[in-house]
Write a structure and sequence with these properties.
Layout lengths: L6 H46 L17 E4 L10 H5 L7 E7 L5 H11 L9 E6 L5 E5 L2 H15 L3 E5 L6 E7 L8 H8 L10 E8 L5 E7 L1 H7 L3 E4 L2 E7 L3 E4 L40 H9 L17 H12 L4
Antiparallel strand pairs: 1-11, 2-4, 2-5, 3-4, 6-8, 6-10, 7-8, 9-10
């Protein structure tokens, strides 16, 4: 039997251990509270920065004449209005995408497993920025450069070609506008004339594809061309010689808006929406609207706010306003999907 004189020392030892444990637990809890407070401050700071951030707006472009059923909208002038584009500006980097589908009816999870087991991005020096499963059963992979996504596509075809089909998403070719060209310059002779009078640009046959010409409000003629990214870099912000005239070249960026519903990216022939006034959002035609400027509302920005409660944007303007936040967002998306 243990002597009774040792009992107090054992009780004392238990008390010391208990106190030590409680002190440790208290310190750990305090550490967690400090960490939580720190993260909350960082989150608040990020939110404040996000809502205040703005992007640079594009320079003013020449306007294409309205086409049947839709309006071609120019990029806006600079302004201080809070924009949808400012919300997405932080993630507006160009993305290069590949879509992968199964030839043997595999699920997206099985496709993903097969890719990870057979393709090593490190070996081919490719950085994967995103890997998403789409509703239609395909897998979408994103990388930072055209070279990386092409190398990845080639590797997938090499190792998984029997089971998987990969397609690289192609972005649209840039369009450019030649401003103030002579009257004798046509869609048929523009490429030859430009190449002969501007040999320093090294324009080859097929580098330029004329799309259409138009006359501005100042009665000057302009011509829109389609080029590849290399030719765009040669021509951008330059002055070219055509006949006896020096002409400026700029990017041609427009947004298509429906005349019927005032929404973007379709014309009235394909419209499934209701008649919407571009000034007041009422169910009437523009010519019948009697709203004053203080009563203007934008249907596109109102729609955005209904679906994004935490990032509200200004709606007190017409959908024809060149400073419209939704218009700026459409222009930015157009630019991201163009192969500059």
């Amino acid at each position: 039997m243990m002597p009774t004189t040792e009992l107090p020392s054992i009780s004392l030892l238990k008390a010391v251990i208990l106190i030590s444990f409680m002190n440790t637990e208290t310190k750990y809890n305090k550490h967690l509270e400090d960490e939580a407070s720190k993260k909350n401050k960082e989150l608040d700071s990020y939110r404040n920065t996000t809502t205040k951030r703005h992007i640079e707006t594009p320079s003013v472009r020449q306007q294409e004449p309205p086409r049947l059923g839709s309006r071609q909208v120019l990029p806006p002038h600079g302004n201080n209005r809070k924009r949808y584009a400012s919300v997405v500006a932080a993630t507006a980097e160009t993305k290069h995408k590949a879509l992968v589908r199964s030839k043997i009816n595999q699920t997206p999870e099985m496709i993903k497993y097969q890719l990870k087991s057979k393709v090593n991005p490190t070996e081919i020096k490719v950085g994967i920025t995103s890997l998403k499963m789409l509703r239609d059963g395909r897998l979408m992979i994103e990388a930072s450069s055209k070279q990386e996504i092409k190398a990845l596509g080639n590797k997938i075809e090499e190792t998984c070609g029997a089971e998987l089909e990969v397609s690289i998403q192609k972005r649209r070719n840039p369009r450019m506008v030649l401003l103030g060209i002579p009257e004798d310059i046509t869609m048929e002779n523009i490429e030859t004339t430009l190449a002969k009078q501007n040999p320093e640009l090294d324009i080859k046959e097929g580098d330029i594809r004329a799309k259409f010409s138009y006359t501005t409000k100042r009665e000057t003629k302009s011509l829109v061309i389609e080029v590849d990214s290399g030719t765009q870099k040669k021509l951008i912000q330059t002055r070219i010689k055509l006949g006896w005239t020096i002409c400026r070249v700029d990017d041609y960026i427009v947004a298509k808006r429906c005349f019927r519903c005032s929404r973007f990216n379709h014309n009235f022939r394909d419209c499934r929406g209701e008649e919407t006034c571009p000034l007041c959002t009422g169910s009437l035609k523009l010519r019948d609207c009697t709203a004053t400027k203080s009563e203007y509302k934008c249907i596109n920005c109102l729609t955005y706010n209904r679906h994004h409660q935490t990032t509200q944007i200004d709606t007190a303007h017409s959908s024809l306003d060149k400073s419209c936040p939704s218009l700026i967002a459409v222009i930015e998306k157009y630019k991201r999907n163009t192969d500059y």
